[in-house]
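re the bet — no i am not wrong, look at it urself. input seq straight from the record:
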Amino acid sequence: MEVTMTKRFATLVLILLSLPLTSGCSLLTTIRWMGGGDLAPAEYDDLEEKRVAIVCVSDRSSYGSGSESLLLAREVSSILRNNIEDIELVRADEIADWIDREGWDEIDYREIGRGVEADRVIAVDLASFSIHEGSSLYKGRADITVTVYDMSDGGHEVFRKFVPEFSFPATGPYPVGDLSEVQFRRAFLKTLSQHVARHFYAYDMADDFSRDSAFIRP
C-alpha cells in the first residue's frame, strides 16, 4: 500500500511540474484524478427507496407557476433523481394540484406529505431571493431553510439546515451586459438547487471551486 501511494505521489509531482501555471482547470482535474476525489458525505441519507415530496415556498410568492419556489423544487428533484438510487419523487404538478384542491393560504408540509402519500417531505423555505446588486451588476442572494419530515414516523422532523445568504457568484458580482437577466436567474437557481440537493448525497468537494464558471454561460 505504501509503495502504491509513493508511486502515485511521485507521479502527481511530475505531472504538476509539467503543467503550465495557467492551466487551472487541468490542475484541478489532475488532482481529482490522482486522489480519487474528495467526497463530502450526505448530511441526511435516508432517501433511498423512499417516496419523496419536495415543496418549496418563498416569502415573496406562493406556490404559483413560474415562481422561483416552483423552479427550485423542480431542479432539486431532478438532481436527487440523478444522484440517489431508487428514490421516487412526487411530481411537482401532483403537489400543486393537491394544494389547489385544498385551497390553503398557508402551507403545512406535513399535510402535503400525507395528501400525496410521501414517505419523506423535503421542505425548502426561501426567506429571501434577489439577483441584482445595483443597476449594472448581478449578484444572487438567498436565505434558505431545508427541513426533512419523516411521514412514516408521524411527520417527525428529522433534519433541518439553515443557510444564511447563499451568494452567487461567490467570487463577486457579474456584469449585467455580459448576461441576460433570464440567463443569470437560471444559473443562480441551478446553483442554489445543487447546494440544497447536496445535503442528501455524497459529492466531490472539488466541484465547489468551479461552480461559478460551470453555470454562467455568456
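see?? Residues 1-37 form one domain. told u. also The chain has seven helices and eight strands. so pay up
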